[in-house]
Amino acid sequence: MSFGFDKTSDIFPNFYSKLCLEDRLKIFLSLYNCFVGDELKIPNKYAKYSKSISDIFTKRIDDLLYKNKFSVKKCISFCFTSNAIINAYLKGKKLPVFANEPKMKVAKLIKSVYKNGDFYLNLDAQILFFNYVFDKIKRRHPDKQIDIKDNLLILKSDGKGILGVLPIFKEISFERKDELTEEIDIAKSMESMGLDLYIVFPRHSKFTKHIEVKGCFRSGARLKLVPYSVCNKIYNKGKR
């Protein structure tokens, strides 16, 4: 599964199809902003005023170009590559072959989505979700260390593992728990770590509550399937 867009339409996982457009765009931006560096991040306000994912990028690029055009700051340096990318974009032409490392923020954003004279973006949903969960845990638990081992996030306190979190981007529901055999087998292979393990999946209308898989670990550790909300907010336990 993936997120993005091509010439004709947006690309969204099917289980988000019933959400309104604004909610789908908010989910995309929440995942995207946890994946890219600071210079490519896009403010969440664009989800409210855009008609599609590609429209988000078009509006953001146009705003950055407008801001640069009327900036009163003294020009310190001239980036030939950035200006070549911007000119190609404005004229609807392919990016120049030498356009490798632009310095300007707007040029970097253009280069990330403008391919061969057209807008195109295809991001792996699993990679986006993994980075999103990592970012949220890190921000919610700044006092904990987080190690990554075989796609497992291991939360540590004073160097000791206290919880394992396995992010998996997949649609699940109470009615189709039999489809989780592969994920549960992966969890069983990690039993030797002796940690409670949470497998987190994207939250949606058919998956809103934790599911505890009892008797999975002989060690007595717990295995839970956890719905994980995708949004741009950080919720601390007991506070909303």
Helical segment count: 7
Strand content: 15-25%
Task: Give the overall average pLDDT.
Answer: 83
Q: Tell me the helix content.
A: 25-40%
Quickly count the domains: 2
**Cα-based radius of gyration, to the nearest Å:** 21 Å
Coarse structural class: alpha+beta
The run of helices and strands is: EEHHHHHEEEHEEEHEEE
Describe the main β-sheet briefly: 6 strands, mixed
Description of the molecule:
The chain has 240 residues and is α+β, with helices and mostly antiparallel strands. It has two domains: 2-124, no CATH class; 141-228, no CATH class. Helices cover 34% and strands 20% of the residues. It has seven helices and eleven strands. The chain has helices spanning 21-35, 46-49, 53-69, 80-91, 105-113, 125-140, 181-188, and strands spanning 2-5, 10-11, 114-115, 118-119, 121-124, 145-149, 152-157, 160-167, 197-202, 211-212, 223-228. Strands 6-7-8-9-11-10 form a six-stranded mixed β-sheet. A hairpin with a 2-residue loop joins β6 (145-149) and β7. α1 (21-35) packs across α6 (125-140), α3 (53-69) packs antiparallel against α5 and α4 packs across α5 (105-113). The longest helix has 17 residues, at 53-69. It is elongated. The two termini are 31 Å apart. Residues 70-76 and 235-240 have low confidence and may be disordered. It is an enzyme of class 6 (ligase). GO terms for molecular function: UDP-N-acetylmuramate-L-alanine ligase activity. Its EC number is 6.3.2.8. This is UDP-N-acetylmuramate--L-alanine ligase (UDP-N-acetylmuramoyl-L-alanine synthetase). Keywords: Ligase.
